[in-house]
Amino acid sequence: MDFGLNPEQRAMLDTVDRLVATHLPPDEVRRRDREYDPPAHLLKAYSEAGLLALPLPPEYGGLGESWTSVTLVHERLGYHAAMAGSLFGTTVGFGSMSVLTYGSEEQKRELLPRIVSGDLRFSLALTEPGAGSDAGALITKARRTDKGWVINGRKTWISDADRADYLLTACRTAPDSKGSAGITMLLVPKGAEGIQMTLLEKIGNNCLTSWDISYDDVLVADDSVLGDVDNGFRNLMSTLHYSRAGQAANSTGQAQRAVDIAVAHAKERVQFDQPIARFQVIQHRLVDMQTRVDQARHVLYHLAWLISEGMRCRKEAAQSKMVATECLQFVTHHGMQILASAGYSAESDMQRLWRDARLYTFGEGSNEIQRDIIAREMGLQV
Ligand SMILES: Cc1cc2nc3c(=O)[nH]c(=O)nc-3n(C[C@H](O)[C@H](O)[C@H](O)COP(=O)(O)OP(=O)(O)OC[C@H]3O[C@@H](n4cnc5c(N)ncnc54)[C@H](O)[C@@H]3O)c2cc1C
Prior knowledge:
The protein is of the alpha+beta class. The protein folds into 3 domains: about 110 residues, Butyryl-Coa Dehydrogenase, subunit A, domain 1; about 110 residues, Butyryl-CoA Dehydrogenase, subunit A, domain 2; about 140 residues, Up-down Bundle (Butyryl-CoA Dehydrogenase, subunit A, domain 3), CATH 1.20.140.10. It is built from 13 helices and 9 strands. It has a 4-stranded antiparallel β-sheet with strand order 2-3-7-6, with no helix packed on it. It has a 3-stranded mixed β-sheet with strand order 1-4-5. The structure holds flavin-adenine dinucleotide. Flavin-adenine dinucleotide binds next to strand 1, strand 3 and helix 13.
């Protein structure tokens, strides 16, 4: 295993830095967070820089790069801003990989080049009021008719649903089924009649808008199925390592940013006639923070390598998501203590990182569920 970056990967990260400096400078990040204004314009810039093409095969307009390259880009975007990383993650880690992994050949040829060109976005509509961690408890139904599928039900906490061209909606299609059986993933196009969305207010990740969605006799075409009828849950599970790797990459990037902010502040802030970085207690805190980030990064790069090699990685994906998101909470918690009042200011980047971090240990599959997966992989559920 080689942990060194090749010249192409170095050049790619330089491109990411330049792109963000041009399209999302730090003041813009602060303004957008304050005004709940997602940086949707970044998608075209990602496309022009080739970032959306990275993991896809050339026959669908892709560059056929390794998942390690995708991970490096995602981590660097997260370093600049969570909002930049999450836009990349939902498009590449979720949208592209869902279509590529379980879409039909026709869907791949139609949808993937449009993702690469930055013209197509997806949201995952899985969670319901009664189905969070227990996603198999979902009750939104789709009935097959001679005109197509008719959907009735409700989804909640669906990210960026207002900007998605398709809501990839998990529906129960086998009427008497329970749990993960009998579910189908349906592509519901933007503006479909019978959809109503309500914005949910929340305490962080302000540029990842969250929606409650009701489906009232929503009709979609017969060929709107992505994957297999009644086997959608398994289809969805087959891509979860990509989104877990994405969450880990975004969190690791943000965590490194938090450490860098804290180090800079500790060197600059003078109390008792010396920079606070001279106090051993501050030094040790910063050492522990950087060590946690390095640990998260190593687990992440190992996972990226496993994915690139097409190897089984259920345990490592759960571990990486868990380690990185808990690292981010640790470093932002201590970062806030080191910055003290300077961190508590609404102008500070540390408070945004700290607020945003709170989501990740339960979003995208809570860390309790990740621990359950790891326990299963260790053969503990005897
Ligand atoms: C900002 C945001 C964005 C989101 N984006 C999306 C999205 O785009 N699409 C989507 O479909 N969903 C989305 N979600 C939903 C998210 O995936 C869920 O919040 C998550 O799965 C947890 O579900 P829950 O909040 O209902 O918690 P619950 O399932 O009610 O869990 C509550 C607590 O109980 C614990 N728990 C539950 N079951 C077990 C168990 N068996 N063993 C041990 N502990 C357990 C959990 O770990 C958690 O600590 C989003 C949520 C948020 C807040």
